[in-house]
Design brief:
52% helix; 3-stranded antiparallel sheet; single chain; 425 residues; 19 helices; mainly alpha; binds s-citryldethia Coenzyme A
Length: 425
């Protein structure tokens, strides 16, 4: 295909430069500025990278205007209908869904790597009782790297199934152990006879005095939630993983950086913040007042679970969780007044020009917490669920970066500080 160019004219210098235009699979366009500084001494500036592509990637396609999300070309709507979270994880890692033999090999790796080193169990005793599980998780995963020393990036990438299985499985165990620790119950070990989601639920809710009965409806909706959160392009935490990983940090510490980024209320922490917001609005009883507060620039209140850097229409994941939320609560005969508050809030906001004119719609975090709550997962574990789900996405991006040019990420800046001066000035 003929190479197209953008022409950049420096009027006051009477010069111009042609910059190659690159076009993605779905027609997204970018201007390749990799030679800009060398050819013109100029750099570009784009704080928060809203207009900047950080990499070429084959993993996830998002169309923010049309509300499209596909993993390796497959729409998430199809994946939630026809695959399990582990099959989708394999798809993200390998670019194709596993055949039966690959599926059973990967499942076996998950089982074999589901146990924590017994010494790690004592680490939990060092955390204060109220420690947030996301901080425990980030710390424990960093600690994991001390149990698997000399895991250089390249060998990990070559044995990606083992590396991924170790993380996807161990982090599930860590999450369940962190929960049991927080409620003062004995930990429940993983079982080799249970698939991923059922195993997690059993580790979370089984107890020596009250055996947990695994409900297939709960397993099904947990698979849906984890699939919907499994990847999302160059979001804040995935960018953190790519940047930290570009320094050839080991995979576990790199993932720990992703978990820290995800914990923020503007990112993955929003699913917990949504519930806190809905409860506050329910108590107050006046939805419109909070919609108005979210529009008021003097209040630092935002509608949590609303708005998105990329989606300028309804987040397709929010549409699925909204539908699944209604169906699941009905099936489980659960009445949650916060769902009514969420619906009322969404209706009020989507009728308001402030939200319409800014293309602010519910995002993945708006309804997911109501489902987690119906499953019995405590709110301070909601973002941990997001982290569990996002692991395959983070690992796939890390592998794509390691297998690629893998240059260290090091942006520049425009200095606007003090000019040269002496200490005595
Ligand atoms: C996730 O990037 C990803 O893909 C992330 C994620 C993933 O899967 O990895 O999708 C997961 O993080 C979802 C987002 C979860 N966060 C929240 O729900 C927190 C609430 N949302 C906002 O903080 C905000 O919408 C962001 C952070 C999500 C996006 O922020 P942007 O892109 O920086 O948008 P912005 O702040 O520039 O907003 C544009 C305008 C501003 O008003 P004006 O200056 O034009 O007057 O919209 C307003 C904002 O004040 N606005 C909101 C709002 N979100 C944006 N006003 C009220 N409530 C909101 N939620």
């Amino acid at each position: 295909m003929e190479q197209k160019y953008a022409k950049l004219i420096f009027e006051d210098e009477g010069k111009e430069i042609l910059l190659p235009i690159v076009v993605g699979t779905e027609g997204e366009k970018a201007i390749d500025i990799t030679r800009l500084r060398r050819d013109t001494s100029y750099i570009t500036i784009d704080p928060s990278f809203a207009n900047t592509g950080a990499c070429y990637s084959e993993i996830t396609y998002i169309d923010g205007e049309r509300g499209i999300l596909r993993y390796r070309g497959i729409p998430v709507e199809d994946l939630v209908e026809k695959t399990s979270f582990i099959e989708t994880a394999y798809l993200l890692l390998h670019g194709k869904l596993p055949n039966p033999d690959q599926r059973s090999k990967f499942s076996n790796l998950l089982n074999v790597n589901s146990m924590l080193h017994e010494d790690m169990r004592h680490f939990f005793d060092g955390f204060p009782r109220g420690a947030h599980p996301m901080h425990i998780l980030a710390t424990m995963i960093n600690a994991l790297s001390t149990f698997y020393p000399n895991v250089d990036a390249l060998s990990l990438s070559e044995h990606i199934d083992l590396s991924a299985a170790r993380l996807i499985s161990t982090v599930r165990t860590l999450a369940a152990f962190a929960y049991k620790k927080s409620v003062g119950e004995p930990v429940v070990y993983p079982r080799h006879d249970l698939p991923y989601c059922a195993n997690f639920l059993n580790m979370m809710f089984d107890s020596p005095v009250a055996p947990y009965e695994i409900d297939e409806e709960v397993v099904k909706i947990l698979n849906v939630l984890l699939i919907l959160h499994a990847d999302h392009g160059q979001n804040c935490s995935t960018t953190a993983v790519r940047i930290v990983g570009s320094a050839q940090v080991n995979l576990y510490s790199t993932i720990s950086a992703g978990i820290s980024a995800l914990s923020g209320p503007l990112h993955g922490g929003a699913n917990q913040a949504v519930m806190e917001m809905l409860r506050k609005i329910e108590k107050d009883g006046n939805v419109q007042k909070w919609v108005d507060k979210a529009k008021d620039k003097n209040s630092n209140f935002k509608l949590m679970g609303f708005g998105h850097r990329v989606y300028k229409t309804y987040d397709p994941r929010a549409a699925i969780t909204k539908k699944q939320c209604h169906e699941f609560l009905k099936k489980m005969k659960i009445k949650d007044s916060l769902l009514d508050v969420a619906m009322e809030l969404e209706n009020a906001a989507l009728k308001d020009d402030y939200f319409i004119s800014r293309n602010l719609y519910p995002n993945v975090d708006f309804y997911s917490g109501i489902i987690y709550r119906a499953i019995g997962i405590p709110e301070n574990m909601f973002t941990v669920m997001f982290a569990l789900a996002r692991l395959p996405g983070w690992i796939a991006h890390w592998k794509e970066m390691v297998d690629g040019d893998n240059k260290i990420c090091r942006p520049r800046e425009i200095y606007i500080g003090k000019p040269l001066r002496r200490i005595e000035d």
